[in-house]
Write a structure and sequence with these properties.
The protein is mainly alpha-helical and 102 residues long. It is 45% helix and 9% strand. A three-stranded parallel β-sheet has the order 1-3-2. This is ATP-binding protein.
């Protein structure tokens, strides 16, 4: 897929990711077929972060389970650590720089 004319969008994401000592969550909303996923892929080419695809077919439970799996894979976490373990998550993201996209 060709990727062009998205410098402004990538610059906004770069600015968000440059906020020191903070985890950032960006939500990208737009009509279908305009390249939202490709912008995220291009941005993450040389960065570490978590990408979670959200659509109206997924239930909140599905999203939490997907987030838990992604988080565990990204950070090699034990199976008992879940998204609702906020104390543990806080420790992880205080020591590991991360960008969140949903």
């Amino acid at each position: 897929m060709k990727f062009y004319n998205r410098e402004n969008e990538l610059e906004v994401l770069q600015d968000l990711s440059g906020i020191p000592d903070k985890s950032v969550m960006a939500v990208i909303l737009c009509m279908r077929r305009v390249g939202k996923t490709e912008i995220i892929r291009q941005f993450f080419k040389d960065k570490k972060g978590i990408y979670l695809y959200v659509d109206n077919e997924k239930t909140p439970k599905d999203l939490i389970e997907e987030f838990n799996k992604t988080l565990a894979l990204e950070h090699s976490l034990p199976s008992y650590v879940k998204a609702y373990s906020f104390g543990i998550l806080g420790n992880i993201y205080n020591t590991h720089y991360c960008i969140w996209f949903a």
